Amino acid sequence: GEGLLRAVVGAPTNVTVELRDKYDQPLGKTLPTDEEAALIESRLRCNLHYLNSRGDVLDTVQGAAASMGRGFLSVTFVPPRAGECLLELQLDDLPLHEAPFTVSIAEKPELRTTRFALTGEGTRGAA
């Protein structure tokens, strides 16, 4: 389901992401070597998509993904406003949901879809 992620609008927001394979096993346990995990992590790109009520992408903010080792990533993005968001990781140019991975946000284990409402602190009238 969808979850709620609190972020300060205009300030760097950090999310810990765990990579999982298509069978929902943590990637750190299923990959045979640390080198393979590091290679995958080094090729990841992170996008934060803002969605309208129909789920269409309105605009996209690029984030930075840094490896924390063994299938965990630290993803940092600066949200310009509050709203419905979809956190998408891409392996090279392939969206991760089409690659054999899913993403779990460590702070919000229920966010398997990585779709969430971004609630902004210190903002007024954000769409």
Automatic annotation (TrEMBL):
Coiled coil start-end: none
Filamin repeats: from-to residues: 1-105
Superkingdom per UniProt: Eukaryota
Signal peptide: none
PROSITE patterns in alphabetical order: FILAMIN_REPEAT (PS50194)
Entry protein name: Uncharacterized protein
Organism: Rhizochromulina marina
Lineage, broadest ranks: Eukaryota, Sar, Stramenopiles, Ochrophyta, Dictyochophyceae
